[in-house]
Amino acid sequence: MKIGFLGGSFDPVHFGHLAAARLAREQCRLDRVVLLPAASSPSKARDIAPPAASAGDRLDMVRAAAGGEDWLEVSDHELRRGGVSYAIESARHFRASCPDDRLFWIIGSDLLGKLSLWRGIDELARLVEFVVLHRPGHAPEVAADGGIPGLRLYPCAGDLPRISSSELRARLCEGRPVEAFVPQGVFALIRERGLYRRAAAGGDTG
């Protein structure tokens, strides 16, 4: 099988994430795509305000977003492991559990120039292949190997929605609507649990 992995904070998950998963699946003919919420992302610092959702809330939102799509799955592996979520550690885990499958790591073109800085990138390049999605403002061209031995890259052309999780958190904190940017089930969880509204209510933003 050909299995794609799309990692991220998913704080909150939105239609842009789902569009990325769908584009990678269609263009690379993946059998399934696994959404992989990170415990803590090594690639970016978390915003202090607006507040972030808990690991449990993020996992529930991702599961709600993936519901109804038989090709889309969710793994809580990185959340259960905890700590900083490095791709190489997750790739080792999934390679061990799926020894006969082709594994694809789905990334945006904004990360392409930073791959050489990823922990264990030489080993990671042996374990997985990379699907590179064009991100607005970043060159869509994919270099042959980026100086990384054995690196396998597959560019995906197509427009992705211009949606940012940080912008959605700000909108929610300010009481502005987000229904057009997130699946209905995700919005229901945000509303029912009062996520991302602590700062607006004058509470501790953690």
Quick recap of the structure?
With 206 residues, this protein is of the alpha/beta class. The protein has seven helices and six strands.
State mean pLDDT (0 to 100 scale): 88
In order across it, which strands form the biggest sheet? 3-2-1-4-5-6
Tertiary shape: globular
Give a quick account of the main beta sheet: strands, pairing sense, barrel closure. 6 strands, parallel
Order of SSEs: EHEHEHHEHEEHH
> Roughly how much helix do the residues carry, as a percent range?
25-40%
Low-pLDDT windows of residues? 45-50, 199-206
What's the total count of β strands?
A: 6
Strand percentage, roughly?
Answer: 15-25%
Distance between the termini: 42 Å
The Rg value, from CA coordinates, equals: 17 Å
Count of DSSP H/I helices: 7
What structural class do the secondary elements suggest? alpha/beta
Give a structural overview.
A 6-stranded parallel beta sheet has the order 3-2-1-4-5-6. α2 runs antiparallel to α7 and α4 packs parallel to α5. It is built from 7 helices and 6 strands, in the order βαβαβααβαββαα. By secondary structure, the chain is α/β, with parallel strands linked by helices. The N and C termini lie far apart (42 Å). The C terminus is likely disordered.
Descriptors for this entry?
33% helix; 206 residues; disordered C terminus; 7 helices; globular
Strands, helices and their partners?
Layout: E1 2-8, H1 15-28, E2 32-37, H2 55-66, E3 72-74, H3 77-81, H4 87-97, E4 102-108, H5 121-127, E5 129-133, E6 153-156, H6 165-173, H7 184-193
Parallel strand pairs: 1-2, 1-4, 2-3, 4-5, 5-6
Helix pairs in contact: 2-7, 4-5
